[in-house]
Amino acid sequence: MTATANLTETARPLPFWRRPRVMDRVEQAAIVVLWIFLVQRVEVSGNPYAWLLLVSETAVAVFALIRRPTDKLSMDLGDWLLAITATCAGLLIVPGVTLIPAIAPLGLALAILGNLVQAWAKLVLRRSFGVAPANRGIKISGPYRFVRHPMYAGYALVHLGVMILMFMPINAVIYAIGWWAQILRILAEERLLSQDPAYAEYMTKVRWRLIPGVF
Q1: Minimal CA–CA distance to 185: which of 145, 138, 151?
Q2: Which of 139, 128, 131, 132 has the alpha carbon at shortest distance from 69?
Q3: Which positions, given as ranges, span the membrane (predicted)?
Q4: pTM confidence score
Q5: How confident is the model at residue 70 (pLDDT cuts 50, 70, 90)?
Q6: What is the C-alpha separation between 35 and 151, in angstroms, rounded?
């Protein structure tokens, strides 16, 4: 399947439930429901750092609700499953225990730094934020001058901090699955976005996707 085939601008009409705006609403509803359950887990947690889980995940929910609709949205089922898996990972985390209190300050610093980075990226995106691969407008300012996906880089820092502050084996499994999906999601996003000449030019100027010198 070519990247062009992933777009909704195809000759065949899509069924109602597969239309971009309908899928957008379904995705938004799922995020809100999972966020509510996360709030409930944080409320009953005895971990004093549990509130950190809500900072970045609440931002995901808010920006998902106010984002700009688009028809330039991938309708490939695989792309949607990857995006939902990557997004839901953070919403499924269970506040665990701080196994090594001595390094808790490191975990706290990583979580705070990661939240600042992802918040900066979201403020640049504003209503262009989305979950499934889509072109809601090309942004190349702010943290996007350094890596092509700074919001995901911020998530990575938050997740490392969470593993230090709230370790549980199930959380390690959730994050492992989530980041497997996240990497594939990044590649899917760039297949779609690279069809835009502005983004194709941007890719030549900003080489690294997530971690400078690595990926």
Answers
A1: 151
A2: 128
A3: 48-66, 103-121, 155-181
A4: 0.81
A5: low
A6: 19
